[in-house]
Design a protein that fits this description.
Elements lengths: L9 E4 L4 E7 L4 E5 L10 H7 L4 E6 L17 H15 L4 E6 L1 H12 L4 E7 L15 H10 L3 H13 L3 H4 L2 H9 L1 H7 L9 H5 L5 E6 L6 H11 L3 E6 L6 H4 L1 H16 L2
Parallel strand pairs: 3-4, 3-5, 5-6, 6-7, 7-8
Antiparallel strand pairs: 1-2, 2-4
Helix pairs in contact: 2-3, 4-5, 4-8
């Protein structure tokens, strides 16, 4: 897809907010949920390919581009985002949905499955950002450190700190211009995110989920993502797991052909059951 990809946005009016999303293709609903500092454009390498067999909806979570978070902007949380997306599935009248969530979006997707399992046909979690109740983040307070830089006006330094923490050293510098611009346009959401409590689910809650799941990791993804996938795999006997070769945390960008095939094959296999 072209680097200057500009999505055609649709609108869903909530009582207190208007959610925007792309809507491409036809067939079973495949909902793509982005992570921190991103928006629907993050899925540009997935939308065309996966919409050949599915109705692909890529959402912009509340307060992300094309909106902008402000301190007066209202609720910003995993729970609020999950509730919004469950409402969107109802609005589209196309559920249950095959839900794909990346990083923080994986936490949103997982919380959706806990809140309304009947709305989720399958769940694909790509390096989900689900913390351990008994383990601190090995990256330390990187979110707060990045926020402090942004608040001082050194936006790119703050964004580089964040992106390098989740994807590996020097990732920000090597990222393509469109990705850097997307992240800059979502920089204020990091200020909201640092005020969130860590998202953690206990083992019993995770084990209560019965829908088919696919766990996806980047072969080069730093901790804590591999440990999180190990934990989820141990708790979810129905889950399949794939590792995307040659890629770190942004595996859908680093190796889109393999990532897209993994998602498409998983959803197709479950739909055939």
């Amino acid at each position: 897809m072209r680097a200057d990809f500009t999505p055609d946005l649709h609108h869903y009016a909530l009582p207190d907010y208007t959610l925007t999303y792309t809507d491409t293709g036809s067939g079973p609903l495949l909902l793509l949920v982005h992570g921190s500092l991103c928006d629907c454009r993050y899925w540009k390498s997935q939308i065309v390919t996966l919409s050949r067999s599915h109705r692909v909806v890529a959402v912009n979570l509340r307060h992300y581009w094309p909106q902008e978070w402000t301190p007066e902007g209202g609720p910003f949380s995993i729970d609020r985002h999950a509730q919004d997306l469950l409402g969107l599935i109802d609005h589209l009248a196309a559920g249950p949905a095959h839900v794909v969530g990346h990083s923080r979006g994986g936490s949103v997707a997982l919380h959706m499955a806990v809140l309304a399992p009947q709305a989720i046909a399958t769940l694909t979690l790509a390096d989900p950002g689900v913390g351990h109740a008994d383990r601190s983040d090995p990256r330390g307070a990187f979110r707060h450190d990045a926020m402090a830089l942004i608040q001082r006006g050194d936006v790119d330094a703050g964004l580089a700190l964040f992106i390098d923490a989740v994807s590996g050293p020097d990732t920000w510098r090597r990222m393509v211009p469109w990705f850097q611009e997307m992240v800059r346009e979502n920089a204020t959401t990091l200020l909201a995110q640092t005020a969130e409590p860590p998202f953690r689910l206990d083992a019993a809650t995770i084990q209560s989920l019965a829908m088919p799941m696919l766990l996806v990791g980047g072969a080069l993804s730093p901790q804590p993502y591999p440990a999180t996938l190990d934990r989820l795999e141990g708790l979810l006997p129905q889950a399949s797991r794939v590792t995307i070769a040659g890629s770190s945390h942004g595996m859908n960008l680093g190796n889109p052909r393999v990532f897209n095939a993994a998602v498409a094959d998983f959803v197709a296999a479950q739909s055939a059951v």
